[in-house]
Amino acid sequence: MKFVDEFRDAELGRAVAGEILASVEPGRHYKVMEVCGGHTHSIYKYGVDDLLPANVELVHGPGCPVCVIPMGRVDDGIAVAREPGVIFTCFGDMMRVPGSEGSLLEAKARGADIRMVYSPLDALRIAKANPERQVVFFAIGFETTAPSTALTLKRAKAEGVANFSVMCSHVTIVPPLRALLDSPDLRLDGFIGPGHVCTVVGARPFDFIPADYDRPVVIAGFEPLDILQAIQMILRQLDDDRCEVENQYKRVVPHEGNQRALEVMAEVFELRPHFEWRGLGFISHSGLKLSDAYADWDAELRFSVPGVRVADPKACQCGEVLKGVIKPWECKVFGTACTPERPIGTCMVSSEGACAAYYNFGRFAREREVV
Amino acid sequence: MTSPQAAAVSEREQRILGIIETARGKRAKFRDSHVNMAHGAGGKATQGMIEGLFVPAFGGEALEAMGDAGAVEVDGVELAMTTDSFVVKPLRFPGGSIGDLAVNGTVNDLAMAGARPLALTLSLVLEEGLPADELRAEVEAIAAAAREAEVEIVAGDTKVVERGHADGMYVCTTGIGRRDPRGQLSPAALEPGDRILLSGTIGEHGTAIMLARGEFELDAPIESDTRSLWPAVDAMLDAAGPHLRCLRDATRGGVASVLNELARASGVAMIVREASVPVHPAVAGASEILGIDPMYVANEGKLVAFVAPEVADDALAALRSVAGCEQATEIGEVRTEPPGMVLVETSFGGKRVMDQLVGDPLPRIC
Asked: What is the C-alpha to C-alpha distance for residues B78 and B43, in angstroms, rounded to an integer?
């Protein structure tokens, strides 16, 4: 595929990996966090970490939008889905995320009408095709998916689709990063910035990381060469004692972001005072709700949402894993109370979360060499 | 020198890895309170239901072997038996229909057991209101596919259910075949050094069905690959005989699921070279857009063969001489460590684990 294959060129990859190997200080250990779940996925898919020197470690960040949804929020979604006459719609990978009493997939098996959609517009289409039913869209994701929810709501309002509503669980990326950076025991040397989020918000919202916390940020694309190059750029900044936000993904990310998308978001959403993150607890001003102008389409006002709060078990140490303070296996519940079949924290929910990956592949990662 | 603290830490890691190993080695359990769609996807949930519910209930040596078909011996004649149900939406799709699948699917399960397909039975569950023309078209498709595969339909049954059930029609076929004396196939027979052959491009059937459902507003010239694989098996048995270790058709769950299942069954590792796995450009494009890995997408006319290294080239040449298998290729080999795991050398040059599917291959949002 033209314009994609060029960024997956194995020979170029080897060359960049070779340059990285030549540039690292042998005695020094580098920890770089990829913030976005999309980067984690690419790293696994292409085996990018396998090409890095042993002393360059990638730490998977909090940017997997389905994994950070807390159990109580999933329970709330299931409660709405069970209301008579409701068609509950959500993205495919949200279906498997466990609540305190099972996932949406299991609720569907018990009779709730839960349907997978590929875009919020599909949910609106279902609403228009079923005027006698209430159609709810479970909106999740960072600034990447929020504009499409906002546009869908604008259209629902313009067309007067009264049987459509949104259960808004959108989150923003900066507050959890700030929470991680505020931690005194942080062990991260730099950040691979979330390319997709930056196409919407631009590069500026990340200026605080070098300015206030002295850590370099490189906004990166999602092909394996993008990621390798971003790592190289971070290491170069560390080597040069520089600390700034660099944009490796200039072919897509404008410095100012997408003004139109930001305007639509500002019209449709407002910040919640607090939002709970699985494994990270409550973070101020980190979640979005519908603005007053869109209150008529707010599923949380239309239905009696129980507002379930299921505390993460005290022993869960996702926060420490995300900060790079401990390894997954050092968590008190890892592999015993918390497993991929019955996950507790965000790091175990997705197969690409740090803990799930270690659970499934840890032995391989330790031995690396195949005999 | 290792500090005592570091030693203690690594001891603890070893202990945790040990706990995980023990948990993974245990037979899968069936703990769910209700059946959900993941139980039908061919991944971990399906395995839990089979190993945790069916095998313990029915026991038996033939079932324990977990092959595509079970072995039955009648007066010294070795037979293979298998059964399969077909539930597909839409009934017709580019490259085939539910009728083609119902014949080829069962014929292929027999072929994978090294058995020449002899006869099928046919059960139809029809929905009230199904247009007679659609029924007629499927009956003709079944007849044509059976002629093509040289099997006879020897018995049948029909039930009609009320409107709203059965998506038009469900089809179930049961097949019987005679085990070919040239082969000694077994899922536990793999040995380190064995070569892994793949009979052609992957992911066409699953992608064709997904696009035919019209959920994606995507259009691509992709057709289902449904076909009988007995001619391919026949040719390989001729070329490799007892050195042909095991065969699997890469249906639900795709090539990745087949490899994982056999790595576990034989207690071996596998390494697959991603760059040598043939993928039709239209399938690669659709997978890219949908965020799906073609290694996990269903095929209905592709097999994975494990052969001893000394006959690998001959088996591959024989495979390529069969119509529909011209693009057959060697995609990797069997290793010893780490047992039960399938590793991929990505086309970008890194290595990673290719894990079992957890549920349906759902499109990702992130």
From this structure: 30
Are A370 and B271 in contact (CB < 8 Å)?
Answer: yes
Does the pLDDT of residue A366 top 60, yes or no? Answer: no
Kindly identify which residue of chain B lies nearest to residue A7, measuring between CA atoms. B348
Per residue in A172-202, pLDDT (tens digit) is 999 999 988 998 888 899 999 999 999 999 9
B interface mutation test: which of A97, A331, A363 has the most B CBs within 10 A? A363
Query: If you count residue pairs, one on A and one on B, with CB atoms under 8 Å apart, how many are there?
Result: 144
Whether B364 sits inside 8 A of A116 (CB atoms) is: no
Closest by CA position to A303, among listed A151, A150, A137: A137
* Residue in B34, B285, B365 closest to A109 by CB: B34
Nearest Cβ partner of A46 from B343, B346, B366?
A: B346
C-alpha–C-alpha distance, residues B226 and B206, integer Å: 11
Digit-coded pLDDT (tens) for A24-54: 998 999 999 999 888 988 888 898 988 999 8
**What is the value of pTM for the model shown?**
0.86
Smallest Cα distance from B351 to chain A, Å: 5
> pLDDT tens digits, residue range B85-130?
999 989 999 999 999 999 999 999 999 999 999 999 999 999 999 9
Q: Sheet of A56-63: strands edge to edge?
A: A56-63, A30-36, A190-194, A217-220, A245-247
**For residue A284, what are the β-bridge partners?**
A274
pLDDT value at B328 more than 70: yes
Return mean pLDDT, chain B: 89
Number of Cα atoms under 13 Å in the Cβ half of residue A205: 22
Q: What residues of B are in contact with residue A333 (Cβ under 8 Å)?
A: none
CA distance A308 to A70: 10
The predicted-structure confidence for A116-135, as pLDDT tens digits, reads as follows 998 999 999 999 999 999 99
DSSP state string for A300-365 = HHHTT------PPPTT--HHHHHHTSS-GGGSTTBTTTB-SSS--SHHHHSTTSHHHHHHHHHHHH
Whether B182 has a pLDDT exceeding 70, the answer reads yes
Closest residue to B352, CB basis, from A44, A64, A327: A44
pLDDT of residue A370: 36
